[in-house]
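Reviewer 2 asked us to include a model.

Predict the structure of this chain.
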Amino acid sequence: MSVARGRFIAFEGGEGAGKSTQAQLLAEALRALGLAVVTTREPGGTPGAEAIRNLLLRPPGGEWTAEAEALLFAAARADHVARLIR
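Predicted model (structure tokens):
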């Protein structure tokens, strides 16, 4: 038995641009058409990526260096892709 591949739709923009609102509206519209929808976010979307999100939003001991922040984002995305998106 093969699993049909769906569509991957991403909303890009800065904080407060309305990405979550637009994603929710699109998900509701697609569900109204009878389509199955999975919504997620980055960083986040899986338990591990959500833990990393919390570290990014509330860094222990002050701000992250740019390199450390980039690595945390990369780790969150890797977990998200491996566990949910693929």
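Residues 44 and 54 are 9 Å apart (CA to CA). The longest helix spans residues 66-85. We have added this to the supplementary material.
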